[in-house]
Amino acid sequence: MSRRLLAGLGAAALVLLAGCTGGGSDDGAAAGSSASASPGPGSVQTDLLPCPDQPDTPAADEDLPKVSLPCFNGGTLDLGKAPGVPMVLNFWASWCGPCREELPEMQQLADAAGDRVRVVGVVSEDGVKQSASFIGDAGTTFPGAFDSHGDVLAHFGIKGLPNTLFITADGQLAYTKVGQVKSLADLQALVSQHLGVQL
After folding, report:
1. CA 120 from chain center: how many Å?
2. What is the pLDDT of residue 163?
3. What's the pLDDT at 67?
4. 109: left (phi over 0), alpha (psi -120 to 50) or beta
5. CA distances in angstroms from 49 to 96, 112, 121, 144, listed in the order given
């Protein structure tokens, strides 16, 4: 094999790897781009439910970042406020292979939980159009917020995706699951152990 061909293959491999380590956005919404130039999550149509209202009660956990994230199809996710019911926050991106595998499990959890546990996805370090396209492909309907630069996970020093936060009704961070959850049964066990809800 010629050196030129080997160099070309090496460059192609680097481009492919780069797509797995950060946002693959072409709409300006990925990490490191100007937020003012990017369309918001309300600019695209999805089947996601809007983020539900939260009580006007400060979150019990002082370590949760006091940020308010816009949601697809309306509403906001305010981490400075208590959710009012136990909440599972799942951080994902369309460019993340394990996230794509895990998202159907999160939908199953949302379906099984009903009103007893709120499941909210947070698109992190991704573009609006890319994430909306995957939402449609995956058939996801639980509410989804948008953290284009990954500020929430950066607040906790967490790198990589997926990650899931388990938050009590009064806004206490009960547990952080770093990495993929493999099954609905595993998710139900985590909800039972850390949020005290049997599903």
Report:
1. 8
2. 97
3. 93
4. alpha
5. 22, 16, 11, 8
Domain that holds residue 125: 3-195
What's the total number of domains in the chain? 1
Question: Rounded to the nearest 5 degrees, what angle is found at the Cα of 196, between the Cα atoms of 175 and 71?
Answer: 60
**Per-residue b or e along 7-38, where b marks 16 or more CB atoms closer than 10 Å to that residue's CB:** eeeeeeeeeeeeeeebbbbebebbbebeeeeb
pLDDT along the chain (199 residues), means of 10: 37 32 43 45 81 94 93 93 97 96 96 96 93 91 94 92 97 96 96 96
CATH number of the domain encompassing residue 145: 3.40.30.10
**Measured over all CA atoms, what is the biggest interatomic distance in the chain, rounded to whole angstroms?**
66
Chain center to CA of 101: 13
